């Protein structure tokens, strides 16, 4: 029995070593990210459709490349099966595809799909505004106008800059302006210009003198009348048979939410305690949590630690700069992250798991430096296992439109590019569960409390388009012995109970959320 255990253990150690060696020799770079096939996004498709229409007007032949994905939206397929050599998946991770509707029974799927479509349509109505519309400027329009950048606060006024007419000599020059959510007026009168429709949604200006009309155009104002922030009005500008269209964005100024970083030292050094709160979620593992707290205190004695705890019989965790929040039993992993993050009062929050251990390589200052001097919202570090294997878990996430059945979610190992000025850092879409982030941004995305147990990438999928994510491999935190915890005989009673609860999240919970909440029909991934 013992001999067998030792054999198994040796097996694990060998595999661990091999993994480590291979990892160091195969570090993914941006160019090694392989997509299963080239995908055209829908805007290109729309332009291609337009080209088809143009074909009638310009009879010059062209050939559409064959691509099923383009015609029917994204298709759900991964890489083809190939001969399985040992470790081939490590060198060339195969892209697998999962159809997400499998989370539901065939009998309920039709109703689910109908309800999803209803919710999705109202999401589209709320999220797409006139400022997302495709506007094409016609060839040779003698009108000058602002293509973008005109903004007005709801129910307020703005000058419309850049309006100009450029025509050969005519008896009378005229320009018409039409809007649908506001009215036009003029800030100053210019001689020899006739104006009708002042204070209306349609205003006409005309003059026998082009220079006078152009001078007058410099004083045209727009006033938003229909209160609907975060939308846009479409303005049509006409002269004779020519027409141009542009948008005016209607939105409030953003209200800043600033955090006082405290006094900054002579060499620009921050007081980490004023800038960062450490947040974690625990469940049963008080021994591990205490090791984490002790390790933090060696390096950061006054940093606030927020603990969300959904154990059945919570033990009090006390000490200076510690906030312990007790939640209903088994409330869950993401619920705990949410609660912890909701209580943070500093600019940045550092997420750690309760079985992590700070070392002298866990330099929070480096993460602060990255967040302070780049546009990144979140920066991940590296987690070192007891085997010495260090993981950064960098991923690229993308989506493709897929029509009525839902869209496609593609997750690949890798990153986008190096981060300028920080040789150890790269830009990606998802990183490991050891990261520092702008508190406001994390709250904006939120951790979906419906994900009760094993979950991580889901947060970054929800954050796609909101979070600008980076990863640095020179900020390293240790992971308490995992191999021991993975083998049944190495587990303490707490560990056993813990894994029992942790793994109760079925794959179908996550699949159902991807399917309904995120409107995906398919997930392809090589991780
Ligand atoms: C401009 O507006 C006036 C008044 O509404 C209208 O009579 C005229 O036809 C319009 N001109 C163009 C080019 O749309
Ligand atoms: C940093 O801030 C903490 C908490 O506000 C404070 O207790 C500590 O004295 C400060 N440290 C320095 C070096 O100013």
Work out the count of structural domains. Answer: 2
Q: Which class of the largest domain in CATH terms?
A: Alpha Beta
**What's the end-to-end separation, in Å?**
35 Å
The largest sheet is: 11 strands, mixed
**Ligand roster:** 2-acetamido-2-deoxy-beta-D-glucopyranose
Task: Give the mean pLDDT.
Answer: 84
Give the name of the CATH architecture of the largest domain.
Alpha-Beta Complex
Approximate helicity band: 25-40%
CATH superfamily of the largest domain: Spore Coat Polysaccharide Biosynthesis Protein SpsA, Chain A
Descriptive tags:
binds 2-acetamido-2-deoxy-beta-D-glucopyranose, acetylgalactosaminyltransferase activity, 527 residues, Immunoglobulin-like, 29% helix, Spore Coat Polysaccharide Biosynthesis Protein SpsA, Chain A, 2 domains, alpha+beta, six-stranded mixed beta sheet
